């Protein structure tokens, strides 16, 4: 016999049940999937929000199509759009972590974070104090750089001063090719760390929290689908995305602004002071 309607209802995850489980320490291995939406309140636009998203605001770069800014062949012909974007978002220069980044840091400090898979390249999770061991920056970061032709590594500080101070792409000292930070462009392979960790993480997590992403870029977009079928999944976003469908017993959708929602969640669980403490130190 399958579950009766009433037992299915009893098993259904709700905000109240999730809060209670967080308070009582039921979840011990939380897997987080994050996207550009968690950095919007820091001042960094996302890609796809109509009007404010980067894709609607790329006129100044004169790109043939929006994704060209992260296209390796286009970079080879015209690195300036990416250089200009990098100058804007280079970690530690202009933007500070949001309440949501601090919430992720809080999960880490409480020892209940399995891993964060972030699609963001702004480095704000690390700046918020997330232990590097608990972080997979799926689309790379600005902390290292290399030649797009011969692959030689290039000093990241020198790359930063070329791009941020001089506003130009550095040239490889070995082969004369163009250098870029180790941001994963379309068609490039993801960091090894992703494939090394993701299988174990999806198999062992006991809650998935997805925040601020349209879940349109694979393979990260598929992570929430790879967890066991009875694992609770919480989506904190402005809209329903990916395989989250309303009324699925394992899923809870908290609709709206992620900073407001994680603050509310922390209030309910009793973690708000801790959250504010982390925020005040970033
Ligand atoms: P996206 O496709 O732009 O989607 C963003 C999602 O977040 C949308 O569903 C929005 O509705 C939602 N959203 C926006 N603001 C908020 C908010 N305040 N609270 C809750 N939800 C919100 O971005 P994805 O991350 O899904 O796309 C993957 C791309 C984006 C990756 O390759 C990134 O490298 C790239 N990107 C990164 C950054 C960054 O590093 N900060 C910025 C822009 C784009």
Automatic annotation (TrEMBL):
UniProt: Zn(2+) binding residues: 147, 150, 172, 175
Top-rank taxon, per record: Eukaryota
Cofactor(s) needed by this chain: Zn(2+)
GO molecular function annotation: NAD+ binding; NAD-dependent protein lysine deacetylase activity; zinc ion binding
Active site: 139
Protein keywords: Metal-binding, NAD, Signal, Transferase, Zinc
Limits of the Deacetylase sirtuin-type domain: 8-272
Residue numbers binding NAD(+): 46-48, 119-122, 213-214, 237-239, 258
Reactions this protein catalyses: N(6)-acetyl-L-lysyl-[protein] + NAD(+) + H2O = 2''-O-acetyl-ADP-D-ribose + nicotinamide + L-lysyl-[protein]
The protein's Enzyme Commission number: 2.3.1.286
Cofactor binding mode and count: Binds 1 zinc ion per subunit.
Keyword Zinc in annotation: yes
Family indicated by similarity: Belongs to the sirtuin family. Class I subfamily.
Name of the protein in question: NAD-dependent protein deacetylase
The species this protein was found in: Discostella pseudostelligera
Organism classification: Eukaryota, Sar, Stramenopiles, Ochrophyta, Bacillariophyta
């Amino acid at each position: 016999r399958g579950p009766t309607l009433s037992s299915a209802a009893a098993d259904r995850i709700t905000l109240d049940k999730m809060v209670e489980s967080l308070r009582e320490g039921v979840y011990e291995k939380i897997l987080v999937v994050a996207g550009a939406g968690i950095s919007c309140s820091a001042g960094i636009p996302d890609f796809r929000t109509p009007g404010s998203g980067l894709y609607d605001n790329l006129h100044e770069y004169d790109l043939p199509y929006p994704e060209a800014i992260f296209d390796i062949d286009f970079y080879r012909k015209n690195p300036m759009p990416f250089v200009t974007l990098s100058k804007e978002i280079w970690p530690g220069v202009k933007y500070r972590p949001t309440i949501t980044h601090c919430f992720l840091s809080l999960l880490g400090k409480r020892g209940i974070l399995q891993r964060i898979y972030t699609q963001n390249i702004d480095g704000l999770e690390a700046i918020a104090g997330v232990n590097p061991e608990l972080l997979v920056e799926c689309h790379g970061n600005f902390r290292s750089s290399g030649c797009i032709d011969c692959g030689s590594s290039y000093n990241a500080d020198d790359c930063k001063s070329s791009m941020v101070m001089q506003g130009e792409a550095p040239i490889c000292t070995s082969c004369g090719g163009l250098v870029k930070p180790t941001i994963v462009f379309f068609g490039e392979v993801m960091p090894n760390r992703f494939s090394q960790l993701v299988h174990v993480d999806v198999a062992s997590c006991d809650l998935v929290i997805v925040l601020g992403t349209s879940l349109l870029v694979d393979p990260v977009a598929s992570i929430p689908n790879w967890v066991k079928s009875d694992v609770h999944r919480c989506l904190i976003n402005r809209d329903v995305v990916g395989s989250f469908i309303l009324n699925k017993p394992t899923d809870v959708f908290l609709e709206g602004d992620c900073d407001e929602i994680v603050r509310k969640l922390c209030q309910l669980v009793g973690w708000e002071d801790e959250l504010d403490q982390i925020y005040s130190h970033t």
